[in-house]
Amino acid sequence: MEVAIIIVFVLGYLAIALEHPLRIDKAASALVLGVVCWTIFVLGIDVLPDFLAHEFDFFLEHNDHLASGEVMPMFLESRLLHHLSEIASILFFLMGAMTIVETVDSHDGFKVITERIKTTNKVKLLWIVSFLTFFMSAVLDNLTTTIVMVSLLRKLIADKETRWFYVGFVVLAANAGGAWSPIGDVTTTMLWIKKQIPDVPSIIEHVFLPSVATVVIPLIYLSWKMKGDIERPHQTDSHSQNNPASARDRNIIFILGIAGLLFVPVFKTITHLPPFMGMMFSLGVIWITTEILHKHKLPGEKKELSILSTLHKIDMPSVLFFLGILLGVSALQEVGILREVAMNLDKSIGNIYAIDFVIGILSAIVDNVPLVAAAQGMYEIQATGPFAPDGNFWLFLAYCAGTGGSVLIIGSAAGVAAMGLERIDFIWYLKKISWLALVGYVAGAAVFMLTSA
């Protein structure tokens, strides 16, 4: 069964990577991948892995009314629904963020930023975009920041392939920026919440410089290599002139949109509810505001600026792509494959820096969340040493798991979002961005080890 699931996952992964030659949308391949992996797991399971046996005993204790033939199917369904609740929270978060960003865009709100970015020099623009992304990601999170920056780049760069290159660097910078902030990346948040790295200043002190190196080293190389200017989209000015939103509407929605996105981590910290709840609240407030702002406009103008119109622009294939990928990864997690990988790393490598480094590389292939969760389950928090709170193992894990996913576009939530929104080809990213991301990742790891020695 485990072998069959791995084969299906690899074949699905190849179908996603070869989307353009096969002419099959990656969302379709991802959905088939996710469902087939779970089907093999449900139909092929004979003996539960040890970590699931405990969950089964707990389930049996609270469902003793079930007939013997119903127990296992109901348990497996409960496991799927457990993962689906986590996946759904990510999808609702994604849809909320995309809707808010599209609403700001429909009001021409990003003109507030794009008007201030005057340069057309490729190198200067790349530095500006990369560091804007880097610091935004630490305050928002890498997924939301990527969605915002993709919208901005559409206003700044006309040529598709040139824009893809900048979006690739947005993915790299968003993941690097999220790694040194407890609210910037879900894996850093996990380590923060579970007290492996409870001290926020310590996270910043140890992970900030490696994260900067991850972005700066590739940028220095490209500063020497890149030449010329970018071409701005021609349609931006005419669109602004014909936009029914007034300057006052534009500024209100821009400020409210940014404030709504910034409110999400604050809401999570205060309430401890999942981030999508804060995102849905922000969306609701913006929705009400647009209804009030535009109630006196002509029906056609009101429709163009309404949230209902914005919802039709949401990229649903990207959402379904997320669903399929996360279902496939959850099947690998459920059958125990990712846990076995983590344990084998511990046995075969032993060195804590090497273990973290490899986990970072693996997170480019599968989701970093279950890999970090497996590492958290394997190692107890100790009083002193690398496994102590804010110890080097946990801090380096935050860096590696946060930035390693940039090596492949499918290796992080930011990458998957960018891939869906811009239709970036997997092979193109592999050729153009992956090696730069790997160089940055290795450079950041080296900086961490030098500064933590």
Helical percent range? over 70%
Radius of gyration: 23 Å
Count of helical stretches:
24
Structural class: mainly alpha
Which sheet architecture does the biggest sheet show?
A: none
Query: How many DSSP-defined strands?
Result: 0
Average of per-residue pLDDT values? 87
Strand content: under 5%
In the predicted model, the low-confidence regions spanning at least 5 consecutive residues are none
Q: Overall 3D geometry?
A: globular
Distance between the termini: 44 Å
Concise account of the structure shown:
This protein has helices spanning 2-17, 19-22, 26-44, 50-62, 68-106, 111-114, 122-139, 142-156, 160-179, 186-193, 200-225, 235-242, 247-271, 275-293, 299-305, 307-311, 316-335, 337-348, 352-362, 368-378, 392-403, 413-422, 426-432, 434-452.
Outline the structure in words:
This protein is mainly alpha-helical and 453 residues long. Helices cover 77% and strands 0% of the residues. The protein is built from 24 helices and no strands. The chain has helices at 2-17, 19-22, 26-44, 50-62, 68-106, 111-114, 122-139, 142-156, 160-179, 186-193, 200-225, 235-242, 247-271, 275-293, 299-305, 307-311, 316-335, 337-348, 352-362, 368-378, 392-403, 413-422, 426-432, 434-452. The protein is globular.
Descriptive keywords:
0% strand, 24 helices, mainly alpha, 453 residues, globular
